[in-house]
Amino acid sequence: MSTHLVIMAGGIGSRFWPMSTPERPKQFIDVLGCGRSLLQLTADRFGTLVQPECMWVVTSAAYADIVREQLPQLPASNLLLEPCRRNTAPCIAYVSWRIKAIDPKANIVVTPSDHVVMDVQEFLRVVASALRFTAETDNIVTLGMKPTRAETGYGYIQADMSVPSARNREVFRVDAFHEKPDLATAESYIRQPNFFWNSGLFVFRVSTIVNALRIYAPDISVIFEQLLPIYGTPAEQQAIDAHFPECRSISIDYAVMEKADEIFVFPASFGWSDLGTWGSLHERSPKDANGNVCIGQDIRMVESRDCIVHTTEERRVVVQGLDGYIIAEKDDTLLICRRTEEQRITQLSQE
Amino acid sequence: MSTHLVIMAGGIGSRFWPMSTPERPKQFIDVLGCGRSLLQLTADRFGTLVQPECMWVVTSAAYADIVREQLPQLPASNLLLEPCRRNTAPCIAYVSWRIKAIDPKANIVVTPSDHVVMDVQEFLRVVASALRFTAETDNIVTLGMKPTRAETGYGYIQADMSVPSARNREVFRVDAFHEKPDLATAESYIRQPNFFWNSGLFVFRVSTIVNALRIYAPDISVIFEQLLPIYGTPAEQQAIDAHFPECRSISIDYAVMEKADEIFVFPASFGWSDLGTWGSLHERSPKDANGNVCIGQDIRMVESRDCIVHTTEERRVVVQGLDGYIIAEKDDTLLICRRTEEQRITQLSQE
User: Fold this and answer.
1) Which of A12, A73, B15, B287 is spaced 20 to 30 Å from A49 by Cα?
2) What residues contact A72, with CB distance under 8 A and at least 6 apart?
3) ipTM for this model
4) A116 Cα to chain B: minimum distance (Å)
C-alpha cells in the first residue's frame, strides 16, 4: 500500500493582496521570506514520507507553469488541472478517482498548499500515525489543531473524547463540524477540551473517500466515475475540461465530512497556521524588538512598531513613524493599510 | 542688447528622496505630475522672453544627457558642464564669462531650475521690468518674494523702501541679506513691510556681474578670466574640467550679493515656491476633499487625510487609514514618513 500526497493548490489568496494576486496567489509566493514558496514548503514537509511519483498537485490550469517551475520533481502526469474553480469536493473527487485508476489501494493525505507548520517532526509523526490508522480502517481522519486562542477565522471540530479509537489512542470520533464562530462562541469552544481547529488536512484510503463521495455527493461522483477510461490517457485533460465544470461548487467539509458517520479527528499540535490573515503571518514570523515583521531584502523601520512589511522584490523600503500597519508591495502595486482593517483588503483590491 | 537666460540645474535635491535621487534630482522630475519636469517648466516659463540660442543651462556633467533629452531646443554649445559641485558663485562666474565671450552686452536673468511659479504672466512682467532696469544701470536686481508666512526655510532680503529707484518705481535698494531665520525671527520679519524671501532669481548685465565678481571674488574671477581664449572652442570642456575644481565652493549670495553696494530688490508676488520641502509641494498642489495630494497614475486614498503620495511610475497605490504622511516611491525605493519628520529624510536616505 503506497502513501500518496495530494496538494490542493487552486486558491487565489485574495486576502493577501497585493502580495498575493490572482496571477500568482499566496501558495506560490515566498510569504515567509525564507527562499521557498508555501507550495514548496508544503512539498518539502512531506519529503521523507512520500515518493515523488506519489505526489499530486491539483490546481487551476492558469497555474500549471508556476507549479512545474516550483516543483520540478513532480511527474508531469501528477499535475491535475482544473478548468474552473469548484471548491474542494470536486478537486478531491478528481484526484481520488485519478489515483484509484492506477493504485486502488492508495492511502492518501490531502493538504492545502498555503499553510505553515512549525514543528515538522511532530507533523510527520501525526501524519504517519494517521496513515497507519486509515490503512487499517475504512475511516476518514481529519487533523484537528489544539486551539491556542479564540480564533474566529477557523472552523471547529467537536470530538467525542469519551473513548479513543481502539486502533489509535490519539484518534477520536467526530461529533460535529462547526463553521467559523463569532467571538463569544469561539471563546466557549476553547474552554472545552474537545474542540479543535479544522486544519483542512485529511487522511483516508482512496476506496474510503470514493465510497463516501458516491454516497454523499453522487452527482459529483458520477462525473469522475464516467471518466475512468480516460485517466492517464492523452484525452484526460480535454475530458476534464468538458466535464469538471458540471460539478457544483462545494467544499469537502460540506459534501462529505459533515454528513458521513465514520469521521475521526486526530488532535495535534505542530505549530500550524493557515496563514489566512496578515495577522497570522505577523504572529508566525520573526519580529524585531518593536514587533515589526520585515520580509524583504532591504527594509528599515524607524520609530515604527507592530508593522508587517512584505516586498517580494529587491526593493529598498524606509518606514518612519508607523504603528500597526501592513505595507505590502508587489510588481506595480503598493498597499498601506491598518492591521485592524485587514479584513477589507479584498474589497480594497477590487474597487 | 540680447536677453540671456541662465538656468542653474546642478542641485541634488536630497530632501525629496526617494522621488529625487542623486542620479535624477528633483529638477529633472515631473514633481507636479503635469507631464513636464521642473527644468522643463522653468524653460517653458521664459519661452516668450528669450530666444533659444540665448538660453544656457549649467549643470553637473553627470546630468548632461538628461538635460539634452529634456530640453532638445537647447543649443549644444549652451550646455555648460561642471566637473564638480562648487555652489552658485563659480556656476554664475563660469556662465557669465562664457556669455561675455560672445555677447559682452548681454542682459541676463539667472534662475534656479527647480522652483515653481504659479502666475507666469506676472512673473514675466516682473522679469521684463527688471531686465529693462538692468539694461539701463550697472546694478544687480534680485527678485524678492512678498512673504505669505513666517517661513524658516528661506533667506530674507531687507529693503530700504524709503525711496524707490528713480528708473523703476518697483525697485528698491537692499539694506541687508538675512540667512534662514528661526521661527521668532521669521515672525518679526514678516510683520515688517520691507522683508522679502530671497528667491534666487537674479537679473544683471554680464559686465555688471563680471565686475562684481572681480571685486568681491577675485580668486574665482581669475580662473574664468584666464580661460577667455578657450570659451566656445573644442578645448573648453577639458580646460573647465581642469580649472573649475580650483574654485572654492561658495554661493553667489555670500560671494557677491551680501558684499556689493549696488544691489536692488524687486518685490513681487507671482505664486513662487522653491519646492524645497514636501510641505511646500503639498501646499502648491491640488488636494482632494481630505487634503491629500496624489501625484501618480492610480492612487486611491481611503480614510486618509493630509497625505502626499508621489510615484513617478505607473504604479497602483492603495492607502488606508493614514493621516499626515509622505509616501514616495521611485524605482526600487519606497519611503513612508510622517510629514512632521520630513527634515530627516536626507538622513533617512543615507543610513
Assistant:
1) A12
2) none
3) 0.77
4) 28
Q: Helices B206-216 and B218-225 sit at what angle, rounded to 10 degrees?
A: 120
Grid coordinates of A171: 484518534
Q: Quick count: other Cβ atoms within 10 Å of Cβ B160? A: 14
Q: Are B336 and A322 inside 8 Å of each other by CB?
A: yes
Min Cα–Cα distance to chain A from B35, Å: 20
Half-sphere exposure of A155 (CA within 13 A, CB side): 16
Look at the block and give the residue holding cell 573644442. Answer: B234
**B170: nearest Cα among B256, B269, B272:** B269
Average pLDDT, chain A: 94
Contact assignment for B348 to A318 by CB distance below 8 Å: yes
Residues in B closer than 8 angstroms to A314, CB to CB, are: 332
For residue B181, the model assigns a pLDDT of 95
| Half-sphere exposure in the Cβ direction for A38 (13 Å, CA) | 29
Q: State which amino acid sits at residue A266.
A: F
Q: Measuring CA to CA, how many Å separate A330 from each of A25, A27, A227, A320, B332?
A: 12, 15, 41, 20, 11
Cβ distance A316 to B325 less than 8 Å, yes or no, reads: no
E strand or H helix at B206: helix B206-216
| B9 phi and psi angles, rounded to 5 deg | -130, 35
Q: B28 CA to chain A: closest CA distance, Å?
A: 22
Q: pLDDT tens-digit profile of B79-130? A: 999 999 999 999 999 999 999 999 999 999 999 999 999 899 999 999 999 9
Can you say whether the dihedral through the CA atoms of B277, B279, B281, B283 is positive or negative?
negative
List CB contacts of B109: < 8 A, sequence separation 6 or more: B3, B4, B5, B6, B46, B49, B50, B127, B130, B131, B201, B202, B203
C-alpha cell at B100: 561675455
Beta bridge partners of B299: B317
Could you say which of B300, B315, B337 has the minimum Cβ distance to residue A321? B337
**Chain B positions in Cβ-Cβ contact with residue A315 (cut-off 8 Å):** 332-334
Of B300, B320, B334, the CB nearest to A317: B334
Q: B350 in contact with A at a CB cutoff of 8 Å?
A: no
User: Comparing A227 with B14, which gets the higher pLDDT?
Assistant: A227
> Which residues in chain A have their CB less than 8 angstroms from residue B343's CB?
none
Nearest to A321 among B315, B338, B349 (CB): B338
Q: Could B334 and A321 be called an inter-chain contact, meaning their C-beta atoms sit closer than 8 Å?
A: no
Per-residue pLDDT of B134-166, as tens digits, reads 999 999 999 999 998 898 889 999 999 998 999
Residue A349 C-alpha cell reads as 483590491
Give B 14-33 residues with CB within 8 A of chain A. Answer: 18
pTM as predicted:
0.79
Per-residue pLDDT reduced to its tens digit, B27-75: 999 888 888 999 999 999 998 899 999 999 999 999 999 999 999 999 9
Buried b or exposed e, range A152-181, using 16+ CB within 10 angstroms: eebbbbbbeeeeebeebebbbbbeebbeeb
CA distance A310 to chain B (A): 12
User: Which residue in chain A is spatially nearest to B323 when comparing CA positions?
Assistant: A322
- Confidence tier at A275 by pLDDT (50, 70, 90): confident
pLDDT reading at A13 higher than 90: no
